[in-house]
Amino acid sequence: MFTFAEHRSHGLLSSILILLLFAGKAHTASLFTQLEGTNYMAWEAENYSTLTNLTGSTGQGIISVNTTTTITSLLGTTILPSSTNASGRAALLDNVTGINYTQNSKVSYEMTFLQAGTYSLYARVSVFEISDVLNGYGNEDSFFVYSTSTFADTASPSQVNFSATVTSNYTEGTFGWLSTGLQFTVDPSQVGNTVVFSFGDRETGAAFDRFALSMETGLGAATLDGFLNAPEPGKAALLLMAVAAMVVYRRRPTGRQPC
């Protein structure tokens, strides 16, 4: 029969694995920490800390989508299509049922930098047709950034347009990187402390897969795709606990003691 210690380690392992499974399916607030020895911070757009409804309107603003979502664009594309190249096959979408040029929602990410310096913002984006001007994508290609260059929150957000990226066929679920032209400064006093980056909807049909803040300018897709996502301490701790429980479980005595 199993000893009490074996029952306990097996139960702990099962509980942690269930928590990890739940964390992978349900949204939990994220806090990102810059990887040691790197000069960038990269993360999945859908792993936000908070998503705030600014107007109280339903069916508008930014929502999470994946390949099981049943929303479609005017071209009949499922959002997200099964052919999408979105990292993790999930993204955020400025809901196609919303109204253009309104500030309906704000998405925020809490993060901790380990290096002071100036960081350039890159976004991995796509667009889905929502207007009556089919295939033009002129009404789906912008968003707001609510953080100032020092990561302060502002009620007068910066507008980011990415029509140049759209001409590179980053449309209908195919995502590509955009250099936003925005820069943010991490002051030495902010190193090791939490700062907040926020963006929001402007034109419906815009979709967001990943973001990256890098101390290098002019980066291409190959380099940005190679950026590792910043770890989330909560999920990392659960994973370490699962590994520890597995080690304990595997080191249990092979012989069974009679009870």
How would you characterize the overall build of this protein?
With 259 residues, this protein is of the alpha+beta class. It has 2 domains: 1-30 and 233-253; 36-231, Sandwich (Jelly Rolls), CATH 2.60.120. The chain has 4 helices and 14 strands. The chain has helices spanning 4-25, 163-166, 221-225, 233-250, and strands spanning 31-33, 40-44, 50-53, 62-66, 71-72, 78-79, 90-94, 105-112, 117-127, 142-147, 153-161, 176-186, 194-201, 206-214. Mean pLDDT is 83; it is low at 1-9, 15-26 and 236-243.
Keywords:
single chain, 259 residues, alpha+beta, Jelly Rolls, 2 domains, six-stranded antiparallel beta sheet, 4 helices, 19% helix, 34% strand, globular
Mind sketching the topology for me?
Elements: H1 4-25, E1 31-33, E2 40-44, E3 50-53, E4 62-66, E5 71-72, E6 78-79, E7 90-94, E8 105-112, E9 117-127, E10 142-147, E11 153-161, H2 163-166, E12 176-186, E13 194-201, E14 206-214, H3 221-225, H4 233-250
Give a quick summary of the entry.
Helix content is 19%, strand content 34%.
Instruction: Work out the count of structural domains.
Output: 2
Mean pLDDT: 83
Net shape: globular
Q: Class by helix and strand content?
A: alpha+beta
Please provide the count of β strands.
Answer: 14
Can you write the helix and strand succession as a string? Answer: HEEEEEEEEEEEHEEEHH
Q: Work out the helicity level.
A: 10-25%
Number of helices: 4
* Poorly predicted segments: 1-9, 15-26, 236-243
**Share of β-strand residues:** 25-35%
Largest sheet: 6 strands, mixed
Rg of Cα set = 21 Å
Q: Can you say what the CATH homologous superfamily of the largest domain is? A: Galactose-binding domain-like
CATH class division of the largest domain? Mainly Beta
| CATH architecture annotation of the largest domain | Sandwich
What is the CATH topology descriptor of the largest domain?
Jelly Rolls
Question: What distance lies between the first and last C-alpha atoms, to the nearest angstrom?
Answer: 7 Å
